[in-house]
Amino acid sequence: MDPEIKKDEEAILKEANGLLKDPAKRRLLGNVLTLGGLSLATGITLNHYGSVKEILKAVSRFNDGAQGVIFNPHNLAPTYTEADIKQPFPFNAFYSVDKAPVVDPGSFRLQLSGKIADRRPWDLPALYALPHTEQITRHICVEGWSAIGRWGGVVFSEFLRRVGADTTCKYVGFKCADGYFTSIDMPTALHSQTLLAFTFDGQLLPAKYGFPMKLRMPTKLGYKNPKHIVEIFVTNVYPGGYWEDLGYNWFGGS
């Protein structure tokens, strides 16, 4: 083989490995991280002098679509007992725990936008007055660890119903006080275990775990569970996400 062509192949495969940070993509491709395997998996002909990013984007789109089809909104994630709760529960973010945002509870207002009929802001007392439920479920991190915790709040579908969200839309998006943002599919938003959570382990949600609220979804990987939520919006325009825009799988099912 021409040494220059071999060098190009090695560079492309190195880029593929670097971009495939999401285990969901690796599970999909398995051991096909060869030029032929990448091309076969996506139906895209690979040019030695082109970038593999086009192929990886196609893989990610296929992966999202496949997970969306497989997802059953009626299937429940496993639940556990108080004896199973991890103490202390791990902190995880793209910053250190001392950098967790401080949100003033008195002035806080949850903003609503997009395809929502009643977009009036919500203060914390009004949110805390909503019907409360708790779950003990497993948080699964994309980095390979997991931990069981107890979260409490309102079933998210109930909140969406109360504000008149258009649940025929494709996406629900979230903006957070720490600069994080993400979005989820509507079937997951309406899943009975998806909570807008205000408490952790029976106590008001501390800053390190997401005060004033987080979306808790045991059917999604951890990076899809936004913390420090300050705005919720409903849309048919793909919103992307903080990690998703960097190459992580958008659907992010656990």
UniProtKB/TrEMBL annotation:
UniProt xrefs under InterPro entries: OxRdtase_Mopterin-bd_dom, OxRdtase_Mopterin-bd_sf
Entry superkingdom: Bacteria
Oxidoreductase molybdopterin-binding domain span: 100-243
Pfam families assigned: Oxidored_molyb
Signal peptide range in chain numbering: none
Name of the protein: Oxidoreductase molybdopterin binding domain-containing protein
Species in which this protein is naturally found: Asticcacaulis taihuensis
Lineage: Bacteria, Pseudomonadati, Pseudomonadota, Alphaproteobacteria, Caulobacterales
